[in-house]
């Protein structure tokens, strides 16, 4: 209930992680259908980029204004910082403050005068402005870092490389908010080069006890983790997609025309395969480079048919091998019998 600067930057990081989750799942999901030329109904979802911009914008962002307050000359307090927020963010739809002269919040008794409220993706959070300036301006002054660098202990010396007289930097050290913002930007850049897999954890109750399921708590988490939008996009689209070549290679044994080798384009082979299996047309679509399957049941059916076909092929291979082995043994015994009979007649 009591949130200050620390919780603010934590929630900022959560917003950035939610933003990359939206970009890599919901947005990418819909853009792939456009790239592949698949017809489908576009699903609207909330993009929290506007909230991230409210916090990190270089000119009008909350962090930028906080840094400006920390660096400007004159009397700087948490109240002057809040006053500046009220001037710049008064009309922002995700910023709320009773000091902003906005008629929507002048009579909001749940919002104290020394606080501001942000409507995050996961809900509204109220922040106590007290301590924002001091915590953001928590600098390690140059003389302290130089004193630590002169310590005889090698570990302490390694922890304060900026105290090295040969590397003196006369520029003012960055604020805590600026350092955190840079760290988050590095994290986002790193994540965008990866292919992340998400595991969403749902707390069934607040008591950390077994066999207790709080419906309201679970529904709240599902709503604000973006799972509803994800499910809607998945259900409106296709559950499975795969390039034509690996798809044909995996399921070609299910059709006599494509087994053992298909002479022609992979897409044409997949079309022949699906027509032979009599899969309903509404269950799949052909993209420019991929086959899209709508319902997981269709994929499960293909996998079951493939498993049964592999068993049949294994039985066929085993049957042919046993026949070859028995015939080889028979021919060897027949040859031996002829040799024995010829020698017997010779001495008879």
UniProtKB/TrEMBL annotation:
Pfam families: Myosin_head. Residues 184-206 are annotated as: Actin-binding. GO terms for cellular component: brush border; cytoplasm; microvillus; myosin complex; plasma membrane. PROSITE patterns: MYOSIN_MOTOR (PS51456). InterPro entries: Kinesin_motor_dom_sf, Myosin_head_motor_dom-like, P-loop_NTPase. Residues 1-307 form the Myosin motor domain. The keyword DNA-binding does not apply. Gene3D superfamilies: 1.20.5.190, 1.20.58.530, 6.20.240.20, Kinesin motor domain (3.40.850.10). Belongs to the TRAFAC class myosin-kinesin ATPase superfamily. Myosin family. This is MYO1B protein. The lineage of its organism: Eukaryota, Metazoa, Chordata, Craniata, Vertebrata.
């Amino acid at each position: 209930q009591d949130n200050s600067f620390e919780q603010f930057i934590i929630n900022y990081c959560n917003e950035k992680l939610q933003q990359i989750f939206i970009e890599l799942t919901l947005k990418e999901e819909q853009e792939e259908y456009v790239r592949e030329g698949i017809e489908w109904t576009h699903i609207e979802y909330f993009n929290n980029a506007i909230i991230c911009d409210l916090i990190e914008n270089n000119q009008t962002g909350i962090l930028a204004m906080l840094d400006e307050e920390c660096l400007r000359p004159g009397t700087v307090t948490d109240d002057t910082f809040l006053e500046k927020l009220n001037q710049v963010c008064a009309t922002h739809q995700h910023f709320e403050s009773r000091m902003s002269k906005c008629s929507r919040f002048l009579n909001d008794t749940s919002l104290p005068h020394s606080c501001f409220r942000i409507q995050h993706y996961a809900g509204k959070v109220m922040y106590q402005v007290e301590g924002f300036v001091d915590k953001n301006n928590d600098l390690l002054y140059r003389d302290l870092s130089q004193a630590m660098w002169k310590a005889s202990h090698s570990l302490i010396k390694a922890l304060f490389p900026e105290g090295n007289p040969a590397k003196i930097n006369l520029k003012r050290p960055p604020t805590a908010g600026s350092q955190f913002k840079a760290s988050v930007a590095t994290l986002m850049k790193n994540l965008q080069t990866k292919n992340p897999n998400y595991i969403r954890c749902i707390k069934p109750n607040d008591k950390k006890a077994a066999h207790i399921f709080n419906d309201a708590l679970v529904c709240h988490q599902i709503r604000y983790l973006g799972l509803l939008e994800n499910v809607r996009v998945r259900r409106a689209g296709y559950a499975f997609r795969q390039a034509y070549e690996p798809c044909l290679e995996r399921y070609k044994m299910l059709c006599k025309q494509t087994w053992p080798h298909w002479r022609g384009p992979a897409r044409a082979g997949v079309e022949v395969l699906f027509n032979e299996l009599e899969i309903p047309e509404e269950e799949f679509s052909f993209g420019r480079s991929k086959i899209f399957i709508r319902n997981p049941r269709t994929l499960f059916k293909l996998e079951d048919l493939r498993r049964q076909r592999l068993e049949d092929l294994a039985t066929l291979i085993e049957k042919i091998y046993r026949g070859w082995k028995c015939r080889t043994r028979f021919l060897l015994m027949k040859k031996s019998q002829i040799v024995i009979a010829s020698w017997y007649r010779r001495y008879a």
